[in-house]
## 1
Amino acid sequence: MKTNRYKLLLLGMLAAGITACGDAEIMTYDAQYDAVRFTGVSKQDTLIQAFSLTDRCSYMNYSFIETPFAESTEYAIPVFLIGKPAATDRTVAYRIDPEKTTAPEGSYEILSASIPAGKSMGAIKVRLFNAEELSSTTYTLRFQLQESEELRLGPSPYLNSELSWNNSIPVPANTNIIRSYNMLIAGQASYVSTSPSCISSNALKAIYAATGWDDWDDPTKHTIHNGSETYGYYKYLPRYQAIYNGDAYKAYAKVVADYLEQYKEEHGEALLHDSGSLLGEPVTARTY
């Protein structure tokens, strides 16, 4: 009988415990906490872009060199959902930062900004227009995500994205290639910086004019090459590993410096950065 009483007591305690657990507050999903953010990675599917945590911005670039006779092109800036996909499309709120934007009125058109129903990834879709000025300048468009009734803001480092376009040499996206640029062109505090903030189209043109580099995507010509999706098949600059050994980057920086001095003599003025944080300042080769 005692044994049976103990069994009954134990079952009663277990039942009480289960009831207590059932009465406790259980966290459940609430759509009101769904948020939106830009990417914080350098590669997402087939989209390759640069992200700088220092600048808290993701950078993308399009060059009409890829479609030189096109009047316009459509570009999708990815946005990501933090939360569960919804049964309906959700609009993504944003503002265009006037201080960081150089694209004039009429040079672009915002087509849509949404995360489709059932999806965790959406886009701000923009139509970019080709123009004669883009052979000598770069337009930039800086987006800042905003909170809306449908979506909150994600983590603060991932709320800015900058799209630039021209019809000149495209800006590299992979950090290993960006570092090569900073080894050759003065701007970042460190020559091994991977920040793209100082990159300009004119400086890239100067590197190309000085070195003749346009084949770094070709594995038959370079042991260390960019001939893969990871490096975007970028052909105008090597990965830093190709010029870092043996201090070759110092010699190449001197070649770029000589070209910039020649440019100044021929044009009567220095070549200026046409985009980036050094906009309007002379392009200068890094010295060692």
Note: Residues 1-21, 42-48 have pLDDT under 50 and may be disordered.
## 2
Amino acid sequence: MTSTDLHHSPELLRTRVAELLADARLRSTRLTELDDAELVAQHSPLMSPLVWDLAHIGSQEELWLVRDVGGREPLRPEIDGLYDAFQHSRASRVELPLLTPAEARAYVAEVREKALDVLDGHALSGRRLVEHAFAFGMIVQHEQQHDETMLATHQLRAGAPVLDAPAPPPGRALPRSPGDGRPDGGGPGWVSEVLVPGGPFTMGTSTEPWALDNERPAHVVDVPAFVIDTHPVTNGQYAEFIAAGGYDDPRWWSAAGWRHRVEEGLVAPRFWQQDGSGSWFRRRFGRVEPVPADEPVVHVNCHEADAYAAWAGRRLPTEAEWEKAARHDPESGRSRRFPWGDADPTPAHANLGQRHLQPAPVGAYPAGASPLGVHQLVGDVWEWCASGWHPYPGFEAFPYREYSEVFFGGDYRVLRGGSFATDASVGRATFRNWDHPIRRQIFSGFRTARDARPSDLRG
């Protein structure tokens, strides 16, 4: 049964919504199991104090589920402004009169109790906001998105490790493409690419019940033939770029990218450091360890991704190319929900949901590959795309402008696919993310692409 099937049974849907809300809250609780000093501290000016994220989760749940859907009286109307993300920058939130950790925990628990009461008693019909339990799904996704943000804050905090998880499954060697001369990244057989045939495909969705406004509506896009990497660029491949002087050669960088690289003194992905022998190490959630050559590179910004691609004689895929590689089934001509089909992701398909605290080695999820043989398009690392952040044709803001519409334009670049920190409730192949091209604290990586050549089409 897929998640779409649940929406035909209100009782099954209520049960599933309650489970997803509980899963999100369990994760939020684990991420805030720290002493009060750690929760109220600002670990980076790029991030909010963890206690702000926790209460903000409750505030949004109260606004949408308790007040709007449930029509209940406000619980704490005096704190609405404190937890409005548009009123206060992340860097300034530490100075606000925030709820204490104990108050925040009590508040989110009270909100959840009332939200579940609304869920139990609501017909889940009569308004677009509640059809298919959309408002509840929106709140599940909102909490999980903030959980990923809180996990990024954990990566930025100093001090002893406080999080743990098992290692991801081992990788597998992927076949090399004939004539592909790019660096191996640490071992044979890791570099390969596939041709995605040209032609139209359906991008976005008009049927996914919990898809957010920027994923809608479904529309046909004609994409010329292109070639794309079968896996994200690895640490080993990226280290070759560094060793070749990639950070010192402005030929590979855009003007804006080179300016930012110089101003910030960038020499490697964030959290990497080199020892006296030239070996690379990384800090990962408080642990220092050798950089694994076969994992997708993470914590690189879009300028770095563009520079690597240029050095390799390639480019980043456009957003439409990325989604076609992830969803298009060349045999049936239809767009799938996920690279592997329409079934919801399982641990065999993708590295999602903080099951592991790192990307998995390339080739670790053969069951998650697309029909064309493209691997790890969902999970592991968010993948930078060449496209800016814009609405689809026919876009309609719903249920509020501040989720997507106010961010369209500017210098934002699209990221697709989710990361190891992204929950499956968010990890759709249609889900769209965006950020400034200088951001590196997010769990971002990339894969490269190129235009198809006549020889590719003849093959």
Note: The CA atoms of residues 132 and 319 lie 28 Å apart.
## 3
Amino acid sequence: MASKITSKRRSLDLSKLAPESVAVRAGTRRSQEYQEHSEALYLTSSFCFNSAEEAEHGFANAESGFIYSRFTNPTVSMFQDRLAALEGGEACIATASGMAAIMTTAMAHLKAGDHVVCSRSVFGATIQLFGSILGRFGITTSYVDLSDNKAWQAAVQPNTRMFYLETPSNPLTEIADIRAIAKIANKANALFVVDNCFCTPALQRPLDFGADVIIHSATKYLDGQGRVLGGAIVGKKSFIMDKVFPYVRTAGPTLSAFNAWVFLKGLETLDLRMKQQSANALALAQWLEKQAGVEAVYYPGLRSHRQFSLAKKQQKAGGAILSFVLKGGKKAAFKLIDQTTLCSITANLGDTRTTITHPATTTHCRVSPEARKAAGISDGLVRIAVGLENTDDLIRDLQGGFKK
């Protein structure tokens, strides 16, 4: 009779791995029955128990097991664990979209009468969320220039409970001094939330510079191919599990298991994509600087960017987003966009396919003209999210617009 095999491999120590390896290996859960190599997709609404007593224990400890896919699912948990490891956070909760992640963070942390300090240079829907929706519940928001540290300090009120920003910003790629703003937020006892959508942990880890919470629209670069919607919140376990998890469990802004599985596959190539797309964006930005019809180019990887040195300290590369201002205003911007054939005219970003858009009439169209002007979003501004196409092909696609 053959002897029973009892040997067992040592568990993987993620702390000794480079980010590229963590993006492939972290968070993997294998079923005992099949020991599948690739992550399994658990398309189920609920999970069974072997006894009533086991069900009682499961419901009493919902955060550590699997009960109902509104708040616990193995595939979603794998994505959460992998992203937390990449960002250097203790825990992560995934949501149905990036905006759901922002809303969840706000609802988990804020109450009526609280005050938020937010950068003016944020996604248009974020401004609408803070002003039009949270404002109805007695939460007020002050907006400041992203790069003006003194303005952040001056905006603090006795009831300030949260700082919120994106860096680099959308669409002008302004850079926030995360470490300096973290000190101001900490002194004010305010939760410091950073949207890391543009850089991802492949290029930047805000928690390392003092941020408390990371927000992601996983729809963008974490997926990387424009397939599904999702969001994520990363931070300390005490905040994520004690405040965010109970809100998600009750309110249900849930990430689907299928979307989580797609994000897991996206994370495996995140580092490769971000490096190449950053290189492509830099080449395109350098070419745009030489065009006579361009007033200004905004890209953190350019030495002409006023925060180039700060970007070098915080980011491994400039990222894949750039914007530029055409001398002819809206008319020139529309002509340039309309004559392209390779670039996709769409407001989304983070895709392997290059996208081009006119922020003033799309992503920021619901923002007042005054607020757009204050944020530097002019009618001549064009944003390009550079993909993985050959840069010579992208340049040829844009050249026709400048010749006209």
Note: The domain at 17-268 is CATH 3.40.640.10 (Aspartate Aminotransferase; domain 2).
## 4
Amino acid sequence: MLKIINGNIITPGKIIPGGSVLIDNGKITAISEVLPEVYCEEVIDARDNYVSPGFIDIHVHGGGGYDFMDGTVEAFIGTAGTHARYGTTAMYPTTLTSEVEDLFITLDAFKEAKAQNRTGAQLMGMHLEGPYFAINQKGAQDPKYIRNPDPVEYRKILEYSEDIARWSAAPELPGAIEFGRYVKSKGKVLALAHTDALYEEVVEGFNNGYSLATHFYSAMSGVTRRNAFRYAGAIEAGYLIDEMDVEAIADGIHLPPPLLKLIYKIKGAERTALITDAMRGAGMPEGESILGNINAGLKVVIEDGVAKLPDRSAFAGSVATADRLVRTVVKDAEIPLAAAVKMMTLTPARIMGIDKTKGSLEAGKDADVVIFDDNINIITTLVQGLVVYKNKVVLQ
């Protein structure tokens, strides 16, 4: 048994000052406003810092010098350990566009790493990003792998691995509606991404399973003109479809504070998930790096808190960590702390269908817990009741 005491406990209903969390066998057994008189083998004194649900990252490519497209167990475990230092307790490793054979290597590595991982964020399931994208919205994805949905191909992929939890694609492509229906029928989360869709095409996609907007605003159509007429795009659809969830790279760079404020004002904490979308440069010094596979990926440069193409013409990926996301929306976008935490915990858990066991500090749920100070500096990270990170610096 483990007990966390003297913390400002962030619960779904309120923040409990000076509260305690009781943990037994990896599960939360009680949240209390008074110190429970129960003997525990371990006691963690939060010292009046915040005690929060563990952060859940539903879109992440790598970190700590690793990328999941490296296709190695080391890459998965290394990335999970890196992001645990910044408060992430559960993650959905994300792919890039690739050949099917390379995707299978990555899926195999995930399966093995999931069984071995004991020292970092929990590996929940794979997120396939692509290859069914609009070429005009490719972003940093390799265009040579971008193609339209192929029933033979995507059925083969879904049959290959039970670890696929989510798939992102452009709903306007030929065959994308049939693809969406099939993915949804398999119980996977379906998202629109790297899309040039008009509003009407997004509505059709939503009605056929595309319930989430991947990295909202990024690689996504907005208001456009066609033959002199003005049309609403995927961004406007994301706002107008009340039931559509959106995810935001809240690093303050991909989405500056005014856009974060707008997303929060319209979609609210209930429909917005914060994501890092981090590549291997997360948690690493600035300088040259690689997006994607270490041997065959795209050379990029990390500076100003973001990855850029070498000619500085565009962003090439995020190097954000979960603590930075929460800090940005609280400090720069002036969003209340409880709402910011919800967007990093309970909302992504609900989107991925794991909110019965994760996403909030409640009795019976997994003891995924993060302790942080007023500046969202991570002090301690627990995954299912086990301490996987403890800051060596004593924060005052």
Note: Residues 100-116 form the longest helix (17 residues).
